[in-house]
Amino acid sequence: MLDVYWWSLTYLKPYLGTLVLLVAAMTVVSAAELAVPKIMQVFIDTVIPGKKMKAFYWMLAGTVALLAALIAAQCFQNMFQRGLQENAARDLQRAMFRHLRTLGFAYAERHPTGETLSLLNTEVAAVQNMYRYHFPGMLNGFMFSALSVALMLSSSARLTLIMLPGFLLYYLFGPYLERQASLNGKRMANERVEENRKAYESVSAQTELRAYGAERWDSERYAAKVEALNRSTIRTYWYAYMRGTNRRLTYYLGAVFVFIYGYHLIGKDAITVGEFVAFLLYYFAAMHRLTGVVTNITEQRVLMFQAKRLYDFVRLRPAVTEPDQPEELQAVQGELRFEEVSYAYNPDQPVLCEFSLTVPAGSRVALVGATGSGKSTVLKLAGRFYDPGEGRILLDGVPIDRLSFDALRSAMGYVFQETYLFGSSVRENIRFGDPEASDEAVEAAARAACAHEFIMGLPDGYDTPVGERGVRLSGGQKQRVAIARMFIKQPRVILLDEATSALDNESEAGVQEALVRLMRGRTILAVAHRLSTIRDFDRIVVLQDGRVAEWGTYDELLEKRGLLYRLAEGTTEPEEAIVHV
Fold first, then answer.
1. How many Å apart are CA 69 and CA 63, to the nearest integer?
2. Which of 160, 165, 159, 129 lies closest to 145 in space, CA to CA?
3. Rounded to an integer, what distance in angstroms lies between the CA atom of residue 526 and that of residue 534?
4. Cα(447)–Cα(450) distance, rounded to whole angstroms?
5. Is residue 403 within 8 Å of 321, Cβ to Cβ?
6. Any idea where the ABC transmembrane type-1 domain is (predicted)?
7. Is the dihedral of CA 44, 50, 52, 58 positive or negative?
8. Residue 91 CB: number of other CB atoms within 10 A?
9. Which of 330, 490, 527, 543 has the fewest CB atoms within 10 Å of its CB?
10. What are the backbone angles phi and psi of residue 580, rounded to the nearest 5°?
11. Domains of the chain as residue ranges with CATH
12. CA torsion angle for 515, 395, 384, 329 (degrees, to 10)?
């Protein structure tokens, strides 16, 4: 975990100058606070016995000046600490998001969204708390404790040794209680999240629960979550109270020995009363800060279990990387060529085997095949979501792994089976295809995508919010917004992944009309769902077991009476009945 801790601190490195100023301010604050017991020592030993009023006034003035310096130093300390912690916390969060972007599609497919959100929220917040509270607190505690012990040693080395048994007694049980309190606190937080999630689920599912008469079943499940939270809360606060009790016990037990031995030293004139009072104040301050440092370190050790997930995350290497010196395409024509391409998500389960295909610029090619035959994988490889294990893919004669991501993605457009819409307005969702597009360009794209009419029928037209993931629009409307994005982006190559498979016949008719307009003059590589959508394509490629089984025009394949013919005639064998086109 030490490597994880040092990695966490690297986000403070750009602000080393601020860190030095923070330590300097902490030193001034600690010195000013620790000067007060010394002033009291002089007051008790010199001013009161000698009734030196002039010295008293000078001491009073000095105390006021000291307090002014203390307040000023605290202001600087707070300013430096706030700047350091917030900048480091911001840099950490940005770094995690940037790294998530570099991992790309491969990471998103293998890791659930909830797992990633937990990583970017819970774990990032845990490390940010280290910047905000634990690390500055540890520095301050060390600084104050070191100065306190130094002043105690200057007063009486023998009396200082008396505090060691008390601190060792604390250290005997303290770290264990601190660790258990932190771990149970984290467990309690997780249990509270689960209880809230179940409460939300129970409230949201009222209709289903009543329809199935499952209220008692759901109540028992909710009660189990509440019971788990209750047990966790009791354990957490028990350890928290025991932690405080252990700390106070060691304070006061050590103080008893300090009083006994201090009385003995005063009796022998080894120290003065003022020195003893000052020492006692230093003792309580030092013990409070030292035990606080132990608590701080223990809590940071617990945080490192969460930071370890981030540490492992940032060491994940992206499946697809951008070339250091990418080639440039002056004017994209749109020819797409696959040469002996093989790919497997798992080493022992190949998806594509020596797949070769040329899609001439401006042509339309459809991919047909059974589920698992590799159709969607071809599109993912074309967009360089993954790199092939063998072979290569070329755009206008240039291998796509030699192009920058910006060049490749600007040349290609995607219309997926499920369209993601942002929770903003219709206008902003269309403008997503080209953030610099004017309102006139947005409307022109919507008209071309057969979307203008339904948009104008919405309450606020183009400014109507579509809701989370476009929940306020139908499936056909969402697809037409996605096609409008493509019109405004104007890519030379368009990849269609079953863009109409989830639509009813009426919705499909509108979307199909928009697709026909979109495909004019562009290179199209499509995985379609219905035979009717690919009848007019220039070529249909039938995949089987990751290889090209047959290809040709629609009429040519029907004449061959092969896989496509059996599908069209409804005579497909049972194991082939799940063929999608």
1. 10
2. 160
3. 9
4. 5
5. no
6. 20-299
7. negative
8. 17
9. 330
10. -115, 145
11. 2-156+271-314 (1.20.1560.10), 348-576 (3.40.50.300)
12. -100
Q: How much is the pTM?
A: 0.70
Please give the torsion angle defined by the CA atoms of residues 148, 154, 155 and 158, in that order, rounded to the nearest 10 degrees: 100
Tell me which residue of 148, 147, 155, 143 sits closest to 42, measured CA to CA. 155
What single-letter amino acid sits at 373? S
Structure tokens at 126: 């845990």
Q: What is the DSSP string of 277-323?
A: HHHHHHHHHHHHHHHHHHHHHHHHHHHHHHHHHHHHHHTPPPSS---
The one-character DSSP state at 350 is: E
Q: Which amino acid is at 153?
A: L
Identity of residue 507: S
Order the strands of the 390-395 sheet from edge to edge.
Answer: 349-359, 336-346, 390-395, 398-399
Query: Which DSSP string do the residues of 143-201 spell out, in sequence order?
Result: HHHHHHHHHHHHH-HHHHHTHHHHHHHHHHHHHHHHHHHHHHHHHHHHHHHHHHHHHHH
Segment 508-513 long-range contacts (CB within 8 Å, at least 24 positions apart): 508/476, 510/450, 510/476, 510/480, 511/450, 511/476, 511/479, 511/480, 511/483, 513/450
Any bridge partners for residue 527, and if so which?
Answer: 497
Q: By three-state DSSP, how is residue 418 classified?
A: coil
Burial of 409 (0-12, 13-18, 19+ CB in 10 A): middle
Among 492, 394, 484, residue whose Cα is nearest residue 441 = 484
Instruction: Assess contact for 509 and 539: CB atoms under 8 A.
Output: no
Contact 33, 288 (CB under 8 A): no
pLDDT tens digits for 468-508? Answer: 777 788 877 888 888 888 888 888 888 888 766 555 555 56
The pLDDT of residue 75 is 92
